[in-house]
Queue: 2 jobs
Job 1
Amino acid sequence: MQADFSAPDVTFHMEITCLAVSGNDAWMGGTVTSTRDATIYPVGTTFIVRVQDNGQGNGAAPDRMSFFFFANPALCNAKPNLGLPFAWLHGNIQVK
């Protein structure tokens, strides 16, 4: 997985080591394997994140995404309620 943030301005790659799916929701956990700014997200940092696929096409609601939470990646198996505060407007999330 690659994450690009504008504030703070950082990009990192993450190896996904945990994936849990329920309906159109997915929880992913993993470890940062490379980063553009090690002072913000150093290699070895672990996260979990939740995404939601709300369908395809102009009539579909936007896909959604949670914050990245610093946590043991295996926690994704518990499918925690991380909230979905962000509408994903720069691409398409697909949960299958």
Note: The chain has one domain: 2-88.
Job 2
Amino acid sequence: MDLELVMGAQQGDTAAFESLMVANHHRLFLVAHGILRDSHLAEDATQQAFLDIWRDIRRLREPSKFEAWSYRLLVRVCYAEAKRKPTWTPDSEMLPDEEPVASDALGIVVDRDRLERGFQHLSLDQRTVIVLHHLLDMTLEKVAETLEVPLGTVHSRLSRGMEALRAAMEADATSSGPVSVPQEVVR
């Protein structure tokens, strides 16, 4: 993170803030998409987070903690977006970072669908911790700091979330049975 850009934005430099937006849009969007599981809501949340960042950046006491602070603001916006749209509508659009790279594309699609359905069973708190820890490779200590919750809470949310995700995916795999491939696809 370029400390000079953060400090410039704190002083009202719009060019510095625009550079921060460009440099951070992708990472914030990925986190929002991971939490909300919808590209349109994730884009809305990312844009709202940038508005909140611009409005509040002067209050940031330690510019070196901009990254964690921006995640915290984004997570709050994601929670607000999720409350506005409480029904689950999985996003059918794959992000470039989620594109299958293995030769078994059908199996990957089936696994991705099971994962999406598994995410339906998680609370927003559990999804948030899973996304920050697994998508961003944040340590659990860093997740706790970012979310401003105790480390034990992060451990609990991660553990319960992963258990719920596994159980939901196993139940889905059992109920849907093996995947049959139409003959047209095989040819």
Note: The chain is about 70% helix and 0% strand.
